[in-house]
Amino acid sequence: MTEMAAEVLTEVRGQVGFITLNRAKALNALSLGMVRDLLATLLAWQKDDKVLAVAIRGNGREGPFGAFCAGGDIRFLHKAGSVGNPEIEDFFTEEYALNYLIHEFGKPYIAFMDGIVMGGGMGISQGGSARIVTERTKMAMPETIIGLFPDVGGGYFLSRCPGRVGEWLALTGDTIDGASAIAAKLADGFMPSDKQAAVWEQLGAEKFADSAAVQKWIASQYVAAGEGAIGNLPHIEKYFALPTARDIVQALEKDGDEWCQKTAAALRKRSPLMLEVVLEQVRRAREMTLAEDLRMERDMVRHCFYLRPGQSETIEGIRALVVDKDHAPRWNPARVEEVDAELVQAFFKSPWPAHSHPLAFLA
Predict the structure, then answer these.
(1) What are the Enoyl-CoA hydratase/isomerase domain coordinates in residue numbering (predicted)?
(2) What is the rounded CA–CA span in Å between residue 90 and residue 71?
(3) Tell me: the pLDDT tens digits for 1-29?
């Protein structure tokens, strides 16, 4: 494959391994091939003593940076899920293994989270030791919009946001900027977008004594992010602490505040079933290790496609958003008031015995 056609570009310069996601037209949405390339590259560099750290970025339409990663390839998921293509199973198993590897990498992993960082893009950045945002960062876990849930370890990292910020981000899919991402503990440092290229180049030119020196040097490049408070925090803390998604939606609707009304209206457009599933996911994950969370999410994603044959909220959500583009998903049930608690709990029953789980090997 030529370099221009490759979806993942890799090189080692100096003491650092560099990865560029190169699927700009799709905002670097992850394909199965990209997941496999990333896994193979990181496993090789993890064992290579000459590689002290890894840096990752996305190519935008105008060149490097500008778009990190918009998530997984949801068109592929719709097509594969609709026809029972077994590659859908491979995609999620291998993607979650990649997410785990990044968290447990053992060397500095520097993610330049410029532009869109959503879904699968969060999965390949949240485990990093240096999660860098810019003034152009648009961060979200918008899976409930397509009848899915915030996967790729989303239960783990969202549940560790301050207070009820994780529940708010998980249920609404709202987008936050770089400064808010730092406040939410989903980023480590701020860098002006026009400084990234110089820092990227210097990483490959500097002489570092060890991995710790790379981490220290990259942290020295951060600048103040400006205002970093998360807006409407009192409302988030009050309403997203309620026991069920139904309670949250109804309480927001009763509050005359503009933000509450807008948030309630957004939640009414999400899959009612998946709102309850996602709330349960985040709250269970708060008490889990990363490996336990990823195994739970792997169970959940199987159920998203196969729990109710012919009635997948995820396939219907993707259809409405990106296939037919009618933006009128036919959710079942149609209202959060109609969600059966037993159906919610079914998402958390593993289809596999523990010893045969696809992610049993995660520690």
Answers:
(1) 16-348
(2) 16
(3) 444 579 999 999 999 999 999 999 999 99
Q: Which of 14, 17, 60, 72 is catalytic?
A: 72
Q: Residue holding tokens 């485990």?
A: 127
For residue 117, the 8-state DSSP code is E
Exactly one of 37, 95, 114, 151 is catalytic; which is it? Answer: 151
Closest CA to 280 of 265, 256, 299: 299
Instruction: Compute the distance between CA of residue 70 and CA of residue 83 in angstroms, rounded to an integer.
Output: 24
Q: Give the list of residues 6+ apart from residue 324 with CB closer than 8 angstroms, or none.
A: none
Q: Is 120 a catalytic site residue?
A: yes
- Answer for the pair 271, 317: CB distance below 8 angstroms, yes or no: yes
Q: Rounded to two decimals, what is the model's pTM?
A: 0.96
- Active-site residue, 313 included: no
Handedness of CA 108, 96, 360, 345 (dihedral sign): positive
Using pLDDT thresholds of 50, 70 and 90, give the confidence band for residue 112: very high
Catalytic, out of 14, 17, 115, 120 = 120
Rounded distance, CA 348 to CA 339, Å?
16
Give the percent of the chain with pLDDT over 90: 92
- Looking at the chain, list the stretches that DSSP marks H as alpha helix, in order from N- to C-terminal side: 32-47, 74-83, 87-103, 120-123, 154-159, 165-172, 178-183, 196-205, 211-219, 233-239, 245-254, 258-269, 272-285, 290-306, 313-318, 341-346
Instruction: Kindly list the structural domains of the chain, giving each domain's residue range(s) and its CATH number in brackets, ordered by start.
Output: 1-137+177-231 (3.90.226.10), 234-363 (3.90.226.10)
- 72 belongs to the catalytic site: yes
